């Protein structure tokens, strides 16, 4: 906070909001709509969000760092366990937690599991036996675009009874309805504090991580249900042209490896006549150019890492540690 702001009595707020919810609840779409830029990957397939992706929303009044979490679920593999650990870490570090519940579905066992996990970690019972949150938990009712007014009111009441949330806010990220209100509710829950990141920084991820996530998301979209979650992507190198070259036709070269678990998955990834590769490259041309800051060529290699989801060494190499 600078002196002028102090004199005007305007206090800058800044902090972290962890976004949780069961798979497919609309976390990534909400983060993207709040940012107005594509940062987190979105896909209609559940559990596509693997990494804790941070988006940084900065205004004259506040800075909110949004932490997207992979869906909380029962771990079945070592990868599942690591993902759950990553979620716990983001939640403890956060100043507030946004718990997303979809308006187009009933509150279910997945939501109850998340609530009880939040309760056991971040709440206590007061002398009257009522749950009190130790940090603000904001209930966000997502996908309200399919509801009429009375259904909306009913859902909000249901949510209130379910979670005893510090705040409740409805939103349709898809129709951009009430997104401003979500921003301001989050901001109000942030502690007073100075800006943590420079104004023009929108993500804490490196160019490599962002591109890897984009490639992964693009393949998952292509592949419908054929391939399970046995797809990992790493960026091996981004080579920029020499200085004098860049004035002419200089291009960056982005080398990416796509890891699958079995060689039988290779034709699925490639598609007939390598059509999937071609589509993914075409789709990502503009976003990757924007990230590397110049025209670029994407070079994709499909590699086999047997059972990587259960091998600690391979997991580490693929960025899950
Ligand atoms: N009707 C409607 N659909 C939405 C809205 N927001 C997201 N969706 C859809 O819900 C699906 C899941 O959205 P995501 O943002 O990928 O969900 P997520 O919670 O990040 O999913 P995971 O990464 O699997 O945890 C996609 O098909 C979105 O188009 C909304 O406001 N309205």
UniProtKB/TrEMBL annotation:
It is found in: Cytoplasm; Cell membrane. Residues 47-51 are annotated as: G2. InterPro entries: G_ERA_dom, GTP-bd, GTPase_Era-like, KH_dom-like_a/b, KH_dom_type_2, KH_sf_prok-type, P-loop_NTPase, Small_GTP-bd. SUPFAM superfamilies: P-loop containing nucleoside triphosphate hydrolases (SSF52540), Prokaryotic type KH domain (KH-domain type II) (SSF54814). GO terms for cellular component: cytosol; plasma membrane. Residues 142-145 are annotated as: G4. It is a peripheral membrane protein. Pfam families: KH_2, MMR_HSR1. Residues 171-173 are annotated as: G5. An essential GTPase that binds both GDP and GTP, with rapid nucleotide exchange. Plays a role in 16S rRNA processing and 30S ribosomal subunit biogenesis and possibly also in cell cycle regulation and energy metabolism. PANTHER family: GTPASE ERA, GTPASE ERA, MITOCHONDRIAL. This is GTPase Era.
